[in-house]
Amino acid sequence: MALMGDKLAKALGAVVAAGEGGGREVRGVYACDVLGRALARAEADCAWVTVVGHVNTIAVAVQREVACVVVADGAAVDTNALEAAVREGVPVLTTDMTAADAVARIQAAMKSDAKSMVDDITRFIFVEDEPRQADIIFAPGSADPSIPERAAELYRDGYAPLVLPAGGVSVKLGKFAGVKKKADVYNKDYRTECEFYCDVLQQSGVPESAILQENQSGHTRDNAFFSRKAADAAGLSIRKAIICCKGFHARRCLMLYQMAFPEAELCVVAVEGYGVNRHNWHESEYGVDRVLGELSRCGNQFVPDIKRHLGLH
Questions:
Q1: How would DSSP label each residue in 232-295?
Q2: pLDDT tens digit string along 114-145?
Q3: Is the dihedral of CA 286, 292, 297, 298 positive or negative?
Q4: Residue 71 CB coordination number (10 Å)
Q5: pLDDT of 111 strictly over 60
Q6: CB atoms within 10 A of CB 262
Q7: Residue 54 in contact with residue 85, Cβ under 8 Å?
Q8: pLDDT, tens digit, for every residue of 286-307?
Q9: Is 5 in contact with 22 (CB distance < 8 Å)?
Q10: Residue 195 CB coordination number (10 Å)
Q11: For the domain bounded by 136-274, which CATH number is listed?
């Protein structure tokens, strides 16, 4: 996990003896006082901790493309070394800490910075509100019954008089992907995600008369905009709505439904999807892939929309 050099200097209580302390990202830490070994093993973008303040230290740092040199134990740095560091653009930090303490402090700072990044991503992706009264409940499609089950619960609790499930067939498969959970309960030959959701909703106590269907969409953007077409065709004026979706899908759903229903006040009621939630997503490779995939899509899928909104094309 990257740590900016200025944060590293602050964590060490170090003096920036040469170069710009905040100019480079530090992506690791390496400690060694044997220059020949450092020349072979120091990794690019690391903070190299040493007690050797010699001009050759700077030469090795340049060769290995380290992010900065941390001269520990209050060791002196030669004037020639400082001049070379300025010339080559290698930040040099000096500290009275022992090398071992400096390494431990850098690792702790990197861990703290990583936690801050995880927290920021969590807050952005996992949007979740308390349920509130609405005109309709939107349920973007998937093969997971947790979403329509939660939507049915909201309906039974009186939060909205209508549910609008959305979803056709899988874009990749050209057919419904198959029920992911409780296939023994929801065991019909479903043709679309919408048909699957409707069965779950009705088995969960939502009458057919309270379900407005959208069965043509193949992805989240179409879930939202085709739901708009279905609502308009039914003559609905939607001022308040609930989006019921997977937690890691919440931000993108909210962004797209906001675009499709700009006049409506939307809230998100999320369910846990595939064992991934706001508390554990960063603990597994699968969770990280899911959440960072969503983070990426929240950017790249909206480039034309944002440029259009800003009048850039």
A1: HHTT---SEEEEEEEGGGHHHHHHHHHHH-TTSEEEEEEE-BTTB-TTTGGGSHHHHHHHHHHH
A2: 777 888 999 999 999 999 999 999 999 999 99
A3: positive
A4: 26
A5: yes
A6: 9
A7: no
A8: 999 999 999 999 999 999 999 9
A9: yes
A10: 17
A11: 3.40.50.620
Could you tell me the sign of the dihedral formed by the alpha carbons of 115, 120, 122, 128, in that order?
Answer: positive
Q: How many CB atoms lie within 10 A of CB 297?
A: 15
Cα 265 to Cα 267: distance, rounded to the nearest angstrom? 7
The structure's pTM equals 0.71
Let me know how many helices (H) and strands (E) the chain has, helices first: 11, 11
**Cα 128 from chain centre:** 15
pLDDT at 310: 87
Give residue limits of the domains in the chain. Answer: 3-99, 136-274
Going by their DSSP bridges, the two strands 265-271 and 15-18 should be labelled as unpaired
Q: What distance in Å separates the CA atoms of residue 194 and residue 230, rounded to the nearest whole number?
A: 13
**Which tokens sit at 107?**
């690792």
Q: In this structure, what token pair is assigned to residue 176?
A: 């419904």
Name the DSSP class of 211. B
**CA dist list (Å): 153 to 85, 178, 200, 277:** 65, 23, 11, 20
Nearest to 108 by CA among 21, 38, 36, 29: 29
The CATH class of 3-99 is alpha beta
Q: Beta strands of 109-155 (E only): which ranges?
A: 136-140
Q: Are 159 and 133 in contact (CB under 8 A)?
A: yes
Q: Under a CB-based contact definition with an 8 Å cutoff, are residues 143 and 177 in contact?
A: yes
pLDDT category, 1, cuts 50, 70, 90?
Answer: very low
Q: Strands 240-246, 92-94: parallel, antiparallel or unpaired by DSSP? A: unpaired
Q: What is the DSSP letter of 43?
A: P
113: tokens are 């910075």
Reported as half-sphere exposure (CB side, CA atoms, 13 A), residue 8 has a value of: 36
